[in-house]
Design brief:
The complex is a heterodimer of chains A (about 850) and B (about 500). Helix content of chain A is about 55%, strand content about 10%. With about 850 residues, chain A is of the alpha/beta class. Chain A has seven domains: about 110 residues, no CATH class; about 140 residues; about 60 residues, Arc Repressor Mutant, subunit A (Orthogonal Bundle); about 140 residues, no CATH class; about 160 residues, P-loop containing nucleotide triphosphate hydrolases (Rossmann fold), CATH 3.40.50; about 70 residues, Helicase, Ruva Protein, domain 3 (Orthogonal Bundle), CATH 1.10.8; about 80 residues, Winged helix-like DNA-binding domain superfamily/Winged helix DNA-binding domain (Arc Repressor Mutant, subunit A). The longest helix of chain A has about 40 residues. Chain B is an alpha/beta fold. In chain B, strands 2-3-4-1-5 form a five-stranded parallel β-sheet, with helices on both faces. Classes of the chains: A alpha/beta (about 850), B alpha/beta (about 500). Chains A and B meet through helix 20 and helix 35 of A and helix 1 and helix 5 of B.
């Protein structure tokens, strides 16, 4: 089983919550304490019920029931254990001789406010008990886990011993290093020889410290134990582990011999690990650490290491080479079939990179870089001190099609970065990345500084030193090492794939298969009107449709009519877009001439696609240039019905109203295709795939997708807005080693007022004030149209049922509501939460 | 040194960079179009000239065009040519672009060859007066945004990135379908922080810097122009606190151009007046997302959002609004105090046919405001009366002979007044005539205004004598009465 499989098995069985319900609040203990103090609580209740807590009443009450005082201390959030109370100037119990003074003190700190008339002492005491219990929470949870681990280890040892000749025992005395002993929970030995050390790490959340523990602390511990011939078993579990990135887990599994979670441990994993270690033929422990160092040194200088070069017998030497390779799976190391030689898989690249470290040759550096990525260099030009090149980029995000590379003997500094960014914008303007190859290493502090300056540059300039080239050469996947550098050094907002304002590219197009199929099927015989609110993806669908139509042997002719307001404008656009000759005094009757000319361009049926048609519809309805109303679209209908060509129109309110207008029958040649939100799967892909393509991990993908759905209801623009804000959140992180997005991050982004405002304004789009009011009423309480009408009237908004139904239909088009027939239900289900950001309904 | 006129020069160290400026260049360099919205005198142009410098420093090609410098043009083609020629000049491209109706076509000639991105900064983006041209201009720029994903790599539409800046209503400047602003990342200019103000005060070497900065911040928030103005006022003063208080009192009087301009914008729209009045009364109101009027008040700089509620941006604006009878029906003024009045927006006089009378009416009421603020309330009342007279005279002059005859018949005295020409009628008869012609039973042309106008005559002023400063309520009422007549007599 390779390490990837091991990681997958590990993560699949991690626990999301390590705490049991009673770890949070120990209700048994709370109830017991309440029972024990019921009498005092009753007595205090009597004092409270007797009237406002005056000095006299308090004095008299405490004189009669001095034990009530301990309850008062609890209610004032004091521990009644003594010293803490006294520190604040109160006695731990009532002293009759100082009662008058005590009453004064209690009133001074506000006991009369705490116990105002009407206070329920029992209820208040319960809250106080829960508070006291909270202090024990941390210890309670930790203690239970310790006990669980102790049982697991004990059982595993006794089960393993059933299979072993040499029995295992709990004995750490053979481990001389006291510091190491303290770092371990248990040491298991055979006789006095320690074989295994146990450590535990339970993480309820992920963060910088937690990631450091996994990636560095425990691998380092294993390294130190290895010097003593001890394998580390790390029992690790919790939500923090679930949220750890693949890279972190890779480092953990590479560095620690036996990472295992609680479920795996209980299912026999612990027993198997014990048996494996106890029965393995192993080199002497001290030798193994020394051998690793010898192998490592040799591989650093040479391209391979021979077993015979190691100062141990041949079998132990072969085993040492194998163990070394097994523990370093990201490195591209190849063990010969006999196990006698361990070599770099890409020896020629490693050799070339090492030569560059000694003597930097720009041309050689460029060639090596291109070869390792498997990309062709398109052009090169030598400048006085540098070599510049344009290269085909790796075919993955966040690269564009081409990549600019500058190779220089100079270190990467601010001035160099500016110049490279400038050159990149000239040579490869649609790439947001440029590479700078240099012999000089780049320190962590330089990277931090450089990253801050990236937002000013025309492109992210990624510095790759000769050492980094060597790391690429020794990596099983050189691109992974480059992606590490990109994530570490970039202004991530520059490489964000999310598109907020323009039609989406092919790479970001998800879903809409059903709508596209409907349109294409209809166009064989009829025209189509694509209806939808602003930013819902009409133009993106049309772009995709054009390609599909071409493939299906249609002749699509597209025109963006957003600036077309008159027939004259349309003729101008047609001339410019399709190079047709039309009469200067263009009239709708000339549309047939246009279609004839377009038909002559090719074989297939003509489809005229007119995007953003609302303005032209308005003019066609209201102009005074012709006595025939809606002459333009009547002509379209004639052409469509004659089968000379079909049309695809897209628009929002105006076209929707025409299609819904029963008095406008000449629009019946169009089949309406309504575009609302994406489906759940497509919406999740639109958010998650681009993040993954950037190398960002989603440890709790399912819950992240669920939360994203809840907060967007699948509106594609809002999904992309969320993605963009998540990228900004990542960009603000100083530590770029393990970039991950969790459902907590989604919750953080979507809990802002800015997000709520964007959500509402995007869904509302061009909605009228009346439509907004209706949507707010439905958000407050779903109901039938009659009920909504009644609510409107209650709020003083005059409306008839026709106006309401029209508004509901528009809100349905906007994807805000789902149904207008019976009970009106919200489709954009987060609407009430978004509105709650702004207090009460604006219609009230 | 402080800068109160025009943008702060790029190399001036008396400039406090604000966080939005980092976002601005970050967005531009990430390939996004940006709309920078913010109040007047809020540092937008200063930010743009710094953006330009930074972009040039990193080798990004950038041109800036200030639409405020647009000369009179007679055709749309001339407008486009002017714009493209300005861009060409910025890039040093030798092109003489003739009148052309297509922005993209014109810019293709105006920008340097190559494939590198081109950034065009459009300052004062609302400054195209002709609505049709404005829609065409921005519609064509919007087309560039849409087309950029659909054209070959060397097409100019693919290379262009725009930054628009101004103080305007996004939803009204351009028709929704044509608006390039929908494709922009919208950034708002932000106020200075109290720490920024302290730095500026310290740079100006003003004593007691902390208390001065605190005082300034408490009154004008971080409004950059007002902050700089106050620092400039107290810089070098012997008695800093007294000087500062005097400067603040001056601002609170509503007379400085900054305040007048701002409140004229508010008074020009009834919906804005209603919202501002509501915030005066209630302290704050719920912010309603998607409410264009509330958003515009934020863009204007009068309001801001705090804890999801709309509140005044600073104590100064709140004070001015609360003592302006044009904003709130119950101005917080006591006897003898000066109420902050603003001249009625010129748009209210747009319906007057005679341009000379229009000028007379507008100037008379503007003079009335000036007199009131200068402590001359009788003169102010005369100003309002004069404006009324000019307005009614214009109303009657535009009527047919038959209607003038009707008006003449309604006179009460003045037999020697012309039956066909109202120019020599007394104000009393003009008012009677207008009432007769308007045939509006509810129309009330107030007699008070006429009577108050006569207070400039010493003899009449002696009757039931009051001191000048006692006429504040009459001035407030006169302003409102004139606004009513302007509204109703159309």
């Amino acid at each position: 089983m390779d390490s990837q499989d091991r990681i997958e098995q590990f993560t699949a069985t991690l626990s999301g919550n390590l705490l049991a319900a009673d770890d949070f609040i120990d209700w048994d203990a709370v109830s017991q304490n309440l029972r024990l103090r019921a009498k005092e609580a009753r007595e205090l209740q009597e004092i409270v019920d007797s009237g406002p807590l005056t000095r006299e009443r308090l004095f008299s009450g405490l004189s009669q029931h001095p034990r009530c005082y301990t309850i008062m201390l609890d209610l004032l959030a004091f521990s009644s254990s003594g010293t803490q109370v006294e520190k604040w100037g109160l006695p731990s119990e009532v002293e009759p001789s100082r009662l008058d003074w005590l009453v004064g003190q209690l009133l001074y700190i506000g006991i009369d406010k705490m116990l105002a008339p009407g206070t329920n002492v029992g209820a208040s005491l319960q809250v106080a008990e829960v508070y006291k219990d909270a202090n024990r929470r941390r210890f309670r949870g930790g203690k239970k886990l310790d006990e669980r681990v102790r049982l697991l280890v004990r059982n595993a040892v006794s089960q393993a011993n059933e299979h072993l000749e040499e029995k295992l025992s709990f004995d750490g005395s053979g481990l001389s290093d006291a510091g190491l002993r303290r770092a371990l929970s248990y040491v298991i030995s055979v006789g006095k020889r320690p074989l295994l050390g146990f450590a535990t790490v339970f993480q309820n959340q992920s963060g910088g410290r937690q990631l450091r523990d996994l990636a560095y602390t425990y691998p380092n511990l294993q390294q130190r134990l290895s010097e003593h011939g001890i394998a580390l078993v790390l029992i690790a579990d919790g939500q923090g582990l679930k949220e750890a990135s693949d890279r972190t887990l890779g480092l953990l599994f590479e560095g620690v011999r036996y990472p295992i979670n609680l479920t795996q441990a209980a299912d026999g994993g612990l027993r198997d690990a014990l048996i494996e270690v106890a029965t393995a033929e192993r080199p002497e422990a001290a030798d193994q650490a020394a051998l690793n160092r010898l192998i490592e040194d040799r591989l650093r200088l040479a391209l391979s290491v021979e077993a015979e070069a190691l100062p141990v017998g041949p079998n132990r030497a072969r085993l040492a080479l194998s163990a070394y390779a097994d523990a370093r799976r990201r490195a591209f190391l190849v063990l010969s079939p006999t196990g006698e030689r361990l070599s770099w898989g890409n020896a020629s690249w490693v050799e070339a990179a090492r030569r560059l470290k000694v003597q930097f040759n720009p041309k050689a550096a460029l060639d090596l870089f291109a070869e390792m990525l498997g990309c062709e260099v398109l052009s090169e030009s030598a400048l006085p001190t540098e070599l510049c090149a344009e290269m085909v980029a790796p075919p993955v995000a966040p690269f564009g099609e081409t990549l600019h590379i500058t190779v220089s003997r100079q270190p990467l500094d601010e001035a160099q970065a500016r110049e490279v960014g400038r050159r990149s914008s000239e040579m490869t303007p649609y790439s947001n990345l440029a590479i700078y190859l240099t012999p000089h290493p780049i320190s962590d502090s330089q990277i931090t500084q450089h990253r801050k300056a990236q937002s000013m540059l025309a492109a992210n300039v990624i510095g790759i030193s000769a050492s980094a080239l060597e790391q690429m050469a020794t990596n099983r996947e050189p691109l992974n090492r480059l992606m590490d550098a990109i994530l570490t050094q970039s202004d991530l907002t520059k490489v964000s794939p999310f598109i907020l304002s323009n039609p989406t590219t092919d790479r970001m197009f998800y879903g809409r298969e059903a709508e596209a199929a409907t349109v294409q099927r209809t166009l064989a015989t009829n025209s189509v009107a694509i209806l939808g609110s602003r930013r819902i993806g009409k133009t993106s669908l049309i772009r995709r449709l054009r390609e599909n139509l071409r493939i299906s042997n249609f002749q699509p002719f597209f025109a963006d009519c957003q600036t077309v307001k008159t027939w004259h404008d349309f003729a101008e656009l047609a001339r410019k877009s399709w190079q047709v000759s039309l009469p200067q005094d263009f009239r709708p009757l000339h549309l047939s001439l246009l279609i004839e000319e377009l038909q002559g361009r090719g074989e297939g049926p003509v489809v005229v696609i007119l995007d953003e048609i609302d303005q032209l519809i308005e003019w066609d309805q209201n102009h005074s240039d012709d006595t025939v109303p809606e002459a333009f679209f009547r002509s379209c209908r004639s052409i469509s019905q004659a089968g000379a060509a079909q049309f695809v129109f897209s628009g929002e309110r105006r076209i929707a109203n025409r299609l819904w207008d029963a008095q406008s029958p000449h629009w019946n040649f169009c089949r309406p295709v309504q575009l609302t939100q994406l489906g759940r799967t497509d919406a999740a892909s639109l958010l998650i795939d681009p993040l993954r393509s950037m190398g960002v991990k989603l440890p709790d993908q399912a819950s992240a997708a669920e939360l994203a759905w809840e907060r967007t209801s699948g509106h594609p623009q809002i999904v992309q807005y969320l993605g963009d804000r998540l990228v900004r959140l990542l960009n603000a992180r100083e530590d770029r080693r393990d970039l991950a997005v969790s459902s907590n991050d989604i919750a953080e982004v979507t809990s802002t007022t800015e997000y709520a405002q964007h959500y509402l304004t995007t869904y509302w789009g061009q909605a009228t004030k009346f439509e907004k009011a209706v949507s707010e009423i439905v958000a407050a309480s779903e109901g039938t149209p009659v009920e909504v009408l009644g609510r409107l009237r209650e709020l003083g908004i005059e409306a008839d049922s026709e106006a309401l139904l029209s508004a509901l239909r528009m809100l349905q088009l906007y994807g805000i509501i789902a149904d207008v027939d019976e009970k009106i239900a919200l489709r954009a289900t987060w609407f009430p939460d978004a509105l709650a950001h702004f207090g009460s309904l604006s219609v009230q | 040194m402080t800068h109160l006129h025009g943008p702060v020069p790029v190399d001036d160290d008396f400039y406090s960079e604000r966080p939005f400026e980092g976002d601005l260049i970050g967005n531009v360099q990430a390939g996004r179009w940006v709309l920078l919205l913010g109040p007047r005198q809020h540092g937008k142009t200063s930010a743009l000239i710094r953006l330009k410098r930074k972009l040039l420093d990193v080798g990004t090609r950038v041109a800036s065009v200030d639409l405020q410098t647009l000369p009179p043009v007679t055709t749309y083609g001339e407008l486009v040519a002017w714009f493209a020629n300005r861009v060409a000049a910025e890039f040093g491209v030798s092109a003489s672009i003739e009148a052309v109706d297509d922005v993209c076509e014109a810019l293709a000639v105006a920008v340097p060859d190559g494939k590198a991105p081109i950034v065009i900064l459009v300052d004062e983006a609302s400054n195209i007066g002709n609505e049709d041209w404005r829609n065409s201009f921005y519609g064509q720029i919007r087309w560039i945004a849409t087309a950029s994903g659909d054209v070959p790599d060397d097409h100019v539409a693919k290379r262009l990135r725009f930054v628009f800046s101004g103080t305007f209503r996004v939803e009204k400047l351009v028709a929704e379908a044509n608006s390039p602003f929908n494709t922009c990342e919208v950034l708002d200019t932000t106020d200075l922080s109290e720490a920024d103000i302290l730095t500026l005060v310290e740079k100006a070497e003003i004593a007691n810097s902390e208390s001065v900065a605190e005082h300034i911040f408490s009154q004008v928030g971080g409004q950059p122009f007002l902050v700089q103005r106050l620092i400039d006022d107290v810089s070098g003063a012997e008695d800093i606190e007294t000087t500062l208080q005097g400067s603040l009192d001056q601002l609170r009087s509503g007379r400085p151009e900054h305040v007048r301009h701002l409140f004229r914008k508010i008074l020009a729209e009834e919906a804005l007046v209603r919202i501002v009045g509501q915030v005066v009364q209630e302290g704050s109101i719920p912010f309603a997302p998607g409410d264009d009027d509330q958003n515009y008040l934020i863009v204007l700089g009068v309001m801001k959002i705090e804890a999801h509620r709309l509140i005044f941006r600073n104590a100064l604006y709140r004070h001015v609004a609360s003592v302006s009878p044009q904003i709130t029906l119950a101005p917080q003024v006591s006897g003898g105090a000066i109420s902050v009045l603003f001249s009625i927006p010129s748009a209210a006089f747009a319906g007057m046919a005679n341009v000379e009378l229009r000028e007379i009416a507008f100037s008379a009421q503007a003079g009335a405001v000036g007199s009131h603020h200068g402590g001359g309330n009788r003169l102010a009342l005369a100003g309002y009366g004069t404006a009324l007279e000019a307005f009614i005279l214009d109303f009657l002059l535009a009527k047919s002979p038959a209607e003038i005859a009707t008006a003449h018949a309604a006179r009460i005295h003045g037999t020697n007044q012309s039956a066909t020409d109202p120019s020599n009628w007394s104000l009393a008869n003009l008012m009677r005539g207008a009432r007769a012609v308007a045939q509006q039973n509810n129309l009330d042309i107030p007699e008070n205004l006429r009577e108050w106008r006569n207070l400039v005559h010493p003899k009449l002023a002696l009757n039931n004598y009051k001191t000048d400063d006692q006429f504040v309520p009459e001035v407030v009422a006169a302003s409102a009465l004139l606004a009513m007549v302007l509204r109703d007599l159309v």
